[in-house]
Design brief:
By secondary structure, the protein is mostly helical. The protein is about 90% helix and about 0% strand. Helix 3 (about 20-50) runs antiparallel to helix 5.
Length: about 100
């Protein structure tokens, strides 16, 4: 998240409409589900490959990019949790 977003989190909650937040949440949820499915597929494919093929695959730039992407998703987890809290706050504000 940008420094501006971190510095003005309270203002961000007010500026984000509930409809926009729900749409963003839906998009994020779909992307996370897709990522989980792809990761499961990669794990399944790795189990059915012979050792030489696995070794060749893990030495490619594509594999390195995949691993970096996974690390980025793990770092994103905290931001998603923060977004969920903002969504809850917006829902609470709408109910008042």
């Amino acid at each position: 998240m940008s420094e501006q977003g971190e510095a003005g989190d309270e203002g961000t909650v007010r500026d984000l409409s509930l409809e926009g937040a729900r749409l963003a949440y839906s998009i994020i949820e779909s992307l996370l589900e897709h990522t989980r499915v792809v990761s499961d597929l990669v794990a399944l494919m790795a189990r059915v490959m012979d050792e030489d093929t696995q070794k060749a695959l893990t030495e490619t730039p594509h594999w390195a990019a995949y691993l970096e992407s996974r690390r980025m998703m793990e770092r994103t987890r905290a931001e998603v949790e923060k977004f969920v809290e903002i969504m809850k706050s917006l829902g609470d504000q709408e109910g008042k």
